[in-house]
Amino acid sequence: MNMIKKIFSLILVLGGMGMSMVTLAQLGVHQTQFSRQDSLRGGYGEGRNWWDVTRYDVQVKVNVAERFLKGYVDLSYRITKSDESLMQIDLQEPMQIDKIVLTGRKKPLSFKRDGNVFWVKMSRKGVVGSKEKLRIYFSGYPKVAKNAPWDGGWIWTKDSLGRAWATVACQGLGASVWYPCKDHQSDEPDKGASLSITVPDSLQAVGNGVLTSIKQQKDNFHTFHWEVKNPINTYNLVPYIGKYVHFKDTMQGEKGELNLNYWVLDYHLPIAKKQFAIVKPMITCFESWMGPYPFYEDGYKLVESSHLGMEHQSAIAYGNRFKNGYMGRDLSGSGWGLKWDFIIVHESGHEWFGNNITSKDLADMWVHESFTNYTETMFTECAYGKKAGSEYLIGSRKNIVNDIPIVGTYGVNSEGSGDMYYKGASMLHTIRQIIDNDAIFKSILRGLNKDYYHQTVTGAEVEKYISQKSGKDFSKVFDQYLRTINIPELQFRKVGNQIEYKWANVVEGFAMPVRLTNGQWLYPTQSFKKIGSSDAGGDKLMVVPDFYVVVKEI
């Protein structure tokens, strides 16, 4: 898409509690036709494929009163193939690039606007393997989010005391909504980033990573410099501006001491200290399932935001009003969802899936959201037991709509269905049942985060990895749940003292095993098989509800 102009939100009926939008990623309208601008945004064409980003250093002065940004980005990169002479830099309208300078050249580079893309004419032919740096000056009034975080852009608001409060949420829409970059998930800065935020000296500015300095300026502004040591998604690099106070803690994790930092509005300090107590047991739980927290060098941080939340790496946006559940609601209807804070748990889960492991293309966003949705089940299980985790997940299935496939269209910045959350998690839970060995299942999750540490991946790579490490071919299972809208239907009929059963409503070759409530395993195909009714435990097939299937007597 050229940019996400409308919001697609998963609408849930919550048992008499009205309607609620719970999808946290910014999901675009479901397009079937795409423009050249869509291809420029989501593709990896000639203006992108010859250079690899190594680092971003962003300097921005935020005029909060006028909602105006001015600054520059030092974009460091490495040439990976013969220089194509034109470089694609992304910066969305109405933001402007003012000047571009290549290190070692006094004369600015020429460039031309093409919608949300700038084509930069390089002044010299680069050598493969050589390192270069551009300084890109930019300014303007960035797009304002109409309904953050589902609709991306800057959020300009005030706290309850009437003081300025601002930030940005731009997943899906893209970081180029406010600063110039290579706005594609497949290319993260290998050597990290920095974010220097200049704001009025009555306010504080929080960013990703570690705060290294605060410098007073001459014009009643001051600059907060934040340093990120690890690779980071461009949409995760964000400033938070407000009347913040800071408190901190530490914990012993799998890789040693982990710094925990919290920035909240000053009048929320007491309640935040109470609500954020969940963080330590949550990280301990997640490390046991998925391996060490991926960003020890940058620390873990929660930052209060005016919008609901977003998984900004090492600076998670938190706006759940210091309540358990989803703003006080249990999205599963099981009761377990009110035992913990939805935004803290869900967005923190993204540090492993989404931030540590990032999908190369937006079409594979299930790699972020299906696994992260399943971290809610993981935490429920850690805190309250395996039965509670299953009840939470099974209860959440009422939110599945089966509208379009979970996998989107490649190369055009297009996501698939919001079912990537709950349906995707149910798919993973079903796979866990088939593996039937939690030690192996956890080793797969930990292995993914180790073997793809700080890397971008395709959905196909993740699918293949799970099949290989489990020793079971899940290719048809992935095809069924990710690429169709059909729930596998286990059909059965009673014939004398036997039961005949088969799969229907499935992709060709689908032969997923299921376990009955009496412990018996069935291995259905798309042709009828037989089992004695006594072996089935009665005249009906009762499948363990952890499997996301439909059982139908015909």
3D structure, described in words:
This protein has about 550 residues and is α+β, with helices and mostly antiparallel strands. About 20% of the residues lie in helices and about 30% in strands. It has eleven helices and 29 strands. A seven-stranded mixed sheet has the order 6-9-4-3-12-15-14, with no helix packed on it. Strands 17-18-19-21-20 form a five-stranded mixed sheet, covered by helices on one side. Helix 3 packs across helix 8 (about 440-450). Mean pLDDT is about 95; it is low at about 1-25.
Number of strands: 29
| Helical content band | 10-25%
* Distance linking N and C termini: 44 Å
Distinct helical segment count: 11
Q: What Rg do the Cα atoms give?
A: 25 Å
Beta-strand portion reads 25-35%
In brief:
The chain is of the alpha+beta class and 554 residues long.
Features:
554 residues, alpha+beta, seven-stranded mixed β-sheet, five-stranded mixed β-sheet, 29 strands, disordered N terminus
Secondary structure: elements and pairs:
Elements: E1 11-13, E2 19-21, H1 36-42, E3 51-63, E4 68-79, E5 86-90, E6 96-102, E7 110-114, E8 117-121, E9 131-140, E10 153-158, E11 164-169, E12 193-200, E13 204-206, E14 210-216, E15 221-228, E16 240-242, E17 244-253, E18 256-265, H2 269-275, H3 279-290, E19 300-304, E20 309-310, E21 316-318, H4 342-349, E22 357-359, H5 366-384, H6 386-396, H7 422-435, H8 438-451, E23 455-457, H9 459-470, H10 475-483, E24 489-495, E25 498-504, E26 514-515, E27 521-522, E28 529-532, H11 533-536, E29 550-553
Parallel strand pairs: 3-12, 18-19, 19-21, 22-23, 24-29
Antiparallel strand pairs: 1-2, 3-4, 4-9, 5-8, 6-9, 7-8, 10-11, 11-16, 12-15, 13-16, 14-15, 17-18, 20-21, 24-25, 25-28, 26-27
Helix pairs in contact: 3-4, 3-5, 3-8, 4-5, 5-6, 5-7, 7-10, 8-9
